[in-house]
Amino acid sequence: MISQLKHAFEQFEKEPTISRILISGSGKFFCVGMDLAAAASAASKGGDASSTLLEGLTSLFEAIENSTKVTIAVINGPAFGGGIGLAFSCDLIICVKSATFTLFEVKLGLCPAVISEYVIREWGSSLAREAMLTARPVHAAELQAQGATSLLVDRPENATRCRKPFP
């Protein structure tokens, strides 16, 4: 999925009629992150397999962050691990009030290294440190209070029909 998203962003950049890109989940989760079993398998092989996986994820986040289009993450439910990086590499983040963000990899003894740049920048160092050490779910309202999200909505469908200007 990482390479598919990266390819989509490359295509969007070439299309002059596109000015905004909206990313959202299609089920009850925004994104459950990377398949940690596949990541562990790649890491155990070492060298190229592990590097390729991390480079792909890093280049996807950079493509989103550096996009000339306005990128909007509509968080329709819980986000885990790399899904948090996917969201916070975007320009604007709209969340359902019930959304939570969990650095699940921490529970497995892994460092959220690839997404840490976005988590620290957007959440602030104190909240980011706590989340990276405890892996506790961070609620959308906490992130709104930190200024890390643009808007909270009751239901995901309200996010795409929003008429309220962003702060």
Description:
The chain has one domain: 2-enoyl-CoA Hydratase, Chain A, domain 1 (Alpha-Beta Complex), CATH 3.90.226. Mean pLDDT is 87; it is low at 163-167. It has a four-stranded parallel sheet with strand order 1-2-4-7. It has a three-stranded mixed sheet with strand order 3-5-6. Helix 1 runs parallel beside helix 3. It has helices spanning 2-14, 36-45, 47-65, 82-88, 113-123, 125-134, 140-146, 156-160, and strands at residues 20-24, 70-75, 79-80, 92-96, 100-102, 138-139, 151-153. It is α/β, with parallel strands linked by helices and 167 residues long. The protein is globular, with a radius of gyration of 16 Å.
Quick tags:
7 strands; 2-enoyl-CoA Hydratase, Chain A, domain 1; three-stranded mixed sheet; globular; 16% strand; alpha/beta; single chain; 8 helices; 167 residues; disordered C terminus
